[in-house]
Amino acid sequence: MPLMIVVGAQWGDEGKGRIVDYLAARADVVARYNGGDNAGHTVTIGDRIFRLHLIPSGIVHPHTVAVMGNGMVVFPPTLTEEMTSLRSAGVAIAPSRLHISPGAHLITPAHRALDRAMETARRGKAIGTTGRGIGPAYMDKAARRGLRMADVLVPDFGERLRAHLQEANRTLHLLGAPELDVEAEAQAYLEHTSPLGVYVREVSAELSQALQRGQMVLAEGAQGTLLDLDHGTYPFVTSSSTVAPAALTGLGLGLSVSRDARVIGVVKAFLTRVGAGPFPTEVEGEMAERLRGSGANPWDEFGTTTGRPRRVGWLDGILLRYAVRVNGLTELIITKLDILSGLETIKICTAYAVHNATIYDLPGGPDDLTACTPLYEELPGWQEDITHVRRWSDLPKNAQRYLERIASLAETPIRMVSLGPEREQIFEL
Ligand code: IMP
User: Chain centroid to CA 38: how far?
Assistant: First the structure.
């Protein structure tokens, strides 16, 4: 099965970075297909922590080729900064092993300014975006006036960039937001785009050929299913397609390659969300602090990109079944099981009460979650430290029961469990 698609099965931050890092050891090509530097994938190797926002996290394995697909939106200053920090950590970054699709769209400082201005204009109804310009960049893409990676190779790119910044200033003015200094922004931006031209390369044919040769392509999704533009908790979503089928359009692959694909859903053992929007199983108070952590550790529940404390809650079996359906998940990977050690009992949502009815599925999608009250099963917890466990039989019985309940609610097998931030704190079933 040469195509593996790794997607977040929840609201992002499921720990995909470390899972991709683990799976990339077997991959030939690692490819990102959606989103931009709103994502933050943390990879820990020994005492070094890599926080990657744009470059596929599998690049830290020296044998891989990394691809940034046409479905992405790229902010060049973040990209060049990431290249520099990876290089200084000894990771080779060269046109031979980093390929950026000419169809990937550019995020500009104007998109960032517009993102902030639009959030301010939403007043009490703000989405809580990461402020990285994601929405405005995809708006320009859909309006067919975006700037793309291919454009950085064209001699009149500077002029087109200045025209785009001037146009954005008109909108910023209407929104009552400060306008940009077009010349200063353009010059600074061009310094970051000019070194990128050598990395721009058609990736669709390259990926298809790699799959035909039997090479392993690992498609790395950013954000999570419930933040998908079409299938998430709209309008509290991101502006890209995050679900597994988007790996095909976001990389230029045809349907035939998906026939034997492993579609892997990464599921945190509890649930988190950043930003506004419905969250039926959310908890507050002491239990929230316990699940979130203090922020002292890099794996505590604070945003990798924005540092915001994440909202936390119990695992939601209904939303998980939904994620299995819209992604076509073939297997699950459970992360952060160790965080639940020490709890007396663990709740898991198995149904919703809606207007005097009990429902077990979301036939209409997650649009109207505010009307849903979660119904829980309460399972006994375990007290043992499980961070050293490396096989199923060494897990406490109650941890096994919890995992079995997740798999039965999702009707999907669990193939891997991670119990800590280190590369080796993971085992396969
Ligand atoms: P945007 O993607 O910056 O437009 O933000 C839209 C929504 O998606 C907000 O609720 C963000 O908090 C959320 N979001 C975007 N990227 C991520 C991510 O990588 N992890 C978790 N939430 C994210």
Answer: 8
Annotated catalytic, 61?
Answer: no
The sign of the dihedral angle between the CA atoms of 361, 317, 274, 76 is negative
Examine the pLDDT at 1 and tell me if it is beyond 70.
Answer: no
Q: For helices 109-121 and 134-142, what crossing angle results, to 10°?
A: 100
End-to-end CA distance of the chain: 18
Alpha helices in 235-354 (DSSP H): 246-249, 286-292, 317-327
Q: Whose CA is nearest to atom 19 of ligand 1?
A: 39
Dihedral of the alpha carbons of 316, 321, 325, 331, in degrees to the nearest 10: 100
% of the chain beyond a pLDDT of 90: 86
* pLDDT tens column, 101-111: 999 999 999 99
In this structure, the residues whose C-beta lies within 6 A of any atom of ligand 1 are 12-13, 38-40, 127-130, 132, 134-135, 222-223, 227, 236, 238-239, 274-275
Outline where 122-181 has alpha helix (H): 134-142, 157-174
CB within 8 Å of 324: residues ≥ 6 apart: 9, 265, 410, 411, 412
Interatomic CA distance for residues 60 and 55, integer angstroms: 10
pLDDT at residue number 40: 87
pTM to 2 decimals? 0.96
- Respond yes or no: is residue 53 known to be catalytic: no
